[in-house]
Amino acid sequence: MSDAATAPLLAIDGARATIRLNRPRHLNRLQPDDLAALLQLFDRIESDAALRVLVLTGTGRAFSAGYDLNSVAERAASTVEQQSAGSAFEVVVNRLEELGVPTICRLNGGVYGGATDLALACDFRIGTGGCEMFMPAARLGLHYYPSGIARYASRLGVDNAKKLFLTAEKIDAAEMLRIGYLTALVPTDALDNEVDRLANILAGNAPVAMRGMKQAVNEFARGRLDQDAADRRHRDSMRGAEIREGIQAFAEKRPPRF
Q1: pLDDT of residue 117
Q2: What is the pLDDT of residues 215-229, one digit of tens each?
Q3: What's the pLDDT at 34?
């Protein structure tokens, strides 16, 4: 595979979309143009009802080294521009978390800096023994953006979030699994099979029900559940087409067709 750098690439295979970060020489470090490209790809995926699952991965030996620090440094003379750069990355990560389709991060290697939050915004993270991660904000003198800190704390727990943010220490794949950062840890040669297995399960489940439950879980994690909206989605599901098909498929002992 060529190591030529490009903006993130989109591939579609049936109900599955795959976005691949593609700057392997620089460990898929994200540039400002990549952020705009990712937002466009997210919109495209969200607008296509035939797409039921998204896999996010990287080219080469790392998933991503995060946001390009040189881009931040170039903006250091302007507080307004620096804030704009930081908020642009935050917007991308939050948009990924809010996607209606379920998302899988295929961690093909190390994940560093802001990319740790990008992966954490996915619903599932599957890695191999070669994975490692660290969050260098404290070493760089950077106070990380609040939504990213909240994501760490709600998904990994307060103690683990403090350890990762305040020590800036690197942790290996086994520790990533122990603290819940990884959903699954598999041998390198089994990574694609495990991603395929999970993607096929997600693509075959009821998309409207999954979308609503994903939203509710994320709202619970933030401590801001919209109870009325969740109740309404529950009531609607009880008289919707998905539950009719699900019950019929169960009775007929066949996979449902949503």
Answers
A1: 98
A2: 999 999 999 999 999
A3: 97
Q: Residues, the chain, total?
A: 258
The C-alpha atoms of residue 104 and residue 54 are separated, in whole angstroms, by 6
Give the three-class secondary structure for 172. Answer: strand
Sign of the CA dihedral running 69, 72, 76, 77: positive
CB atoms near residue 55 (< 10 Å)? 23
165 C-beta neighbours (distance < 10 Å), count: 18
pLDDT of 3 higher than 90 = no
Question: Could you tell me which residues come within 8 angstroms of residue 234 by beta carbon, excluding any fewer than 6 positions away?
Answer: 212
- In CATH, the number for domain 9-202 is 3.90.226.10
CA distance 177 to 192: 18
DSSP strands (E only) in 31-123:
53-58, 62-64, 103-107, 110-112
Neighbours of 166 (CB within 10 A): 11
Closest CA to 95 of 121, 70, 115: 121
What is the per-residue pLDDT for 1?
A: 52
